[in-house]
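Need a sequence for this fold. Nothing fancy.
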């Protein structure tokens, strides 16, 4: 039996366009991700370049890496669509 997903979500394909070094000591490195299905003026997203692998080890994204951008919301924060 398939496990029912708890929250509404969507997944979009993206690519790490560039890795941005810290702007000053103590600042985090950033990854600029281009979301392919986004509108032209809103394609780039910058996030702290800090992820956790399946073993709990801290890792970071490489430039040109293919990524999935997942947007998830609580069901109470969504409305049904018509059709």
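Here you go.
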């Amino acid at each position: 039996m398939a496990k029912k997903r708890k929250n509404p979500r969507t997944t979009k394909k993206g690519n790490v366009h560039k890795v941005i070094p810290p702007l000053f000591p103590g600042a985090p490195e950033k990854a600029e991700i281009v979301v392919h299905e986004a509108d032209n003026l809103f394609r780039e997203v910058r996030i702290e370049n800090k992820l956790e692998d399946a073993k709990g080890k801290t890792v970071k994204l490489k430039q040109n890496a293919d990524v999935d951008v997942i947007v998830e919301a609580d069901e109470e924060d969504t409305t049904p669509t018509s059709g």
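For context: The chain has one domain: 9-74.
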